[in-house]
Design a protein that fits this description.
- The chain has 2 domains: 76 residues, Arc Repressor Mutant, subunit A (Orthogonal Bundle), CATH 1.10.10.10; 93 residues, Arc Repressor Mutant, subunit A, CATH 1.10.10.
- A hairpin with a 2-residue loop joins strand 5 and strand 6.
- The strands form 2 sheets. The chain has a 3-stranded antiparallel sheet with strand order 1-3-2. A 3-stranded antiparallel sheet has the order 4-6-5.
- The chain is of the alpha+beta class and 192 residues long.
Length: 192
C-alpha cells in the first residue's frame, strides 16, 4: 500500500462524525443519507460531505435503489488500511545489512542469475525469491509512475514470465497498482 494513501486514509478517519458514521454502517444495515442524518442529529449536507470524504478512501460505498442511495461499509478496504499500518510498524526501520547478509545475497543471485543477468528460474524458497525480486526492482525508481507495459518490459529483461513477477511485486508490497499504473512503495513497506 502506498504510504501517501495510508496517510490520507488516517487523515480522513480523524474526524468524530466520520467515526460515528463508520460505527453505524458497521452494524450491517444499509442507511440512506437522510437516515444517517437523523441518527446523528445533523443536516443531510453534513452527511453528504463526510460520506464523500469516506468514499475518497474507499471506506464506504453506495448502492442506488430507485431514487434512494444507500451507504455500506467497505470492510475489506478498512482491513487493508489497518494491516498496512501494522505492516509498517512490525517492520520498523530497515536495519543495516551485515557483511554476512551481503555475501548471502550475492551467493543467491549468483545461483539464480546467468552471467548475462537473466533469471534462470524463480526461486521456490520465499527468502531467496524476495532477494531476486529486489534485484529486479533495482532499475525502477521511487516516485515514478509506470504503465503495465513498462513494468512488463522491465521484467522481460530478466525473465519471460513477467505476469507472475509483476503479481509478486504487488503481493510483496514492492509496488502499488491502481488503474493499471504501478508505483514503487517505500522500502519500509516491503515484505521481509
Amino acid at each position: 500500500m502506498q504510504l501517501d494513501k495510508l496517510v490520507n486514509f488516517y487523515k480522513v478517519m480523524g474526524d468524530k462524525t466520520r467515526i460515528k458514521l463508520i460505527v453505524l454502517l458497521a452494524s450491517g444495515q444499509s442507511f440512506s443519507g437522510q437516515d444517517l442524518a437523523d441518527k446523528l442529529g445533523v443536516k443531510p449536507p453534513t452527511i453528504s460531505h463526510h460520506i464523500s470524504k469516506l468514499k475518497e478512501v474507499s471506506a464506504v460505498y453506495e448502492r442506488r435503489e430507485k431514487n434512494t442511495v444507500y451507504y455500506y461499509l467497505n470492510e475489506k478496504s478498512l482491513k487493508q488500511h489497518s494491516n498496512g499500518l501494522f505492516d509498517i510498524l512490525n517492520r520498523g526501520v530497515k536495519g543495516e545489512v551485515t557483511m554476512k547478509q551481503h555475501k548471502e545475497k550475492e551467493q543467491i543471485l549468483q545461483n539464480f542469475l546467468t552471467k548475462e543477468g537473466k533469471l534462470k528460474t524463480i526461486p521456490a524458497q520465499r527468502k531467496k525469491k524476495l532477494i531476486v525480486f529486489e534485484h529486479i526492482l533495482n532499475g525502477l525508481e521511487m516516485g515514478i509512475k509506470y504503465s503495465e507495459k513498462e513494468i512488463n518490459e522491465h521484467i522481460k529483461q530478466f525473465h519471460e514470465d513477467y505476469s507472475t513477477i509483476r503479481r509478486e511485486f504487488i503481493i510483496n508490497h514492492y509496488m502499488y497498482r491502481e488503474a493499471g499504473i504501478y508505483e514503487m512503495n517505500p522500502q519500509e513497506m516491503w515484505l521481509k
